[in-house]
Amino acid sequence: MRTSNTIRTRGTARAAAAIVAGALALSLTACGGDDDGDEDKSGGTDKATESTVTLPKLDGESLQVAAVWTGAEQKNFKAVLAEFEKRTGAKVTFVPAQDPIINFLGSKVAGGAPPDVAMLPQPGAIKQAVDKGWAKPLGAEAVKELSENYSQGWQDIGKVGGKQYGVYYKAANKSLIWYNTQVFENAGASEPKTWDELLTAAQTVYDSGVTPFSVGGADGWTLTDWFENVYLSQAGPEKYDQLAAHEIKWTDPSVKEALTTLAQIWGKKDYIAGGAKGALQTEFPASVTQTFTGGDQPKAGMVYEGDFVQVNIGETKAKVGTDAKVFPFPAVGGDAPVVSGGDAAVILKDSKAAQALATFLASPDAATIQAKLGGYLSPNKSVDASAYPNDVQRKMAQALIAAGDDFRFDMSDQAPQAFGGTPGKGEWKALQDFLKNPKDIAGTQAKLEADASAAYGD
């Protein structure tokens, strides 16, 4: 059995989850129509212009940074890299990568031209990069920034064999459901706090003439996120940790229970925009935009995914806090789930410049720049909440920091890439097939277990 990279909390996760979910429930629904602006409402200073970290002069040095980010996410990260260039004199080139990034990096390494730094979205990918001898440990300055600015849990998930390899520059709250306000108002639907209430809200929206859910099933990772929220809330943190480490099998009754629960939505073709066939042809960005275009007659009334949905909402005319609102993923079992994800900076070519960039990304300076641009959360506890451009993001960020170590990291991101992070394979493919045929619970479990066993080397 593989040792889990999951953060092992000390019996407080469920209570913390309830606190965080409660805070989100209170705060996210209270946001008004002025939440799309860039105004710093708390009157704080412009943290992006302050320097809290000392960086070396790197005139004449050049760096390549690889990430799978596209669109606004890539553009905003480039603004952070531009600040690093300004402060050090180095030249930084962003290298667009493809999923799975570990395969992309493998081809670069084989060709003798790996990027200096890569942004890896899975702890499992970090471990693979270390096992293959690609990743280099962080230096003293980067480790110092991490220890000052990050909770122990966020430091630990960037470690392999006790050594620090990753800087979790970007975090995600993956326990959110976004909804079209006009649709809910016209239907008379209210924000649910439990799974049963979610099913009631879905039926209410359906009865009003709008399909309840938009699902980006063409991207298998969205389906794993659905499963993880249901499983964490229903089975509890201990079982979640065990399944994440493959200490229990995917044929376990707890997995059957979670898939049966998911089928209450996935098994109703009229509840999903385009039915299963349509969902499997819908990529994540389109699953968001089709929920917030078309006025009060969009293709769907709700879409599940993390805080980063805001980036895609921004591509429509909808405004976060008025046209688009959000509620915490409802409690399926005792408590609402709190699932997090993130992207870590990992050094592949050890140099003074690469270590300096990792140090910068571990500082509040870098995170504050991107926080101001929106659609981003940082696990860096030294980032002032005033940096976030609206109340929705401020409250999400505050809840993330308040959770400390009491959260669970995305389960599929902890798995070996072959099982948890490869299009058309493993968990992604098994859940896509399950979306297509939600009655085949036993077959789905058997396929998940066979693929997991092979990937974990059991």
UniProtKB/TrEMBL annotation:
Xref: Gene3D superfamilies: Periplasmic binding protein-like II (3.40.190.10)
Signal peptide: 1-32
Any matching Pfam family: SBP_bac_1
Keywords: Signal, Transport
Superkingdom of the organism of origin: Bacteria
Tagged with keyword Signal: yes
Family listed: Belongs to the bacterial solute-binding protein 1 family.
Entry-linked PANTHER family: ARABINOSE-BINDING PROTEIN-RELATED (PTHR43649), OSMOPROTECTIVE COMPOUNDS-BINDING PROTEIN GGTB (PTHR43649:SF29)
Protein name per its UniProtKB record: Sugar ABC transporter substrate-binding protein
Source species of the chain: Streptomyces fumanus
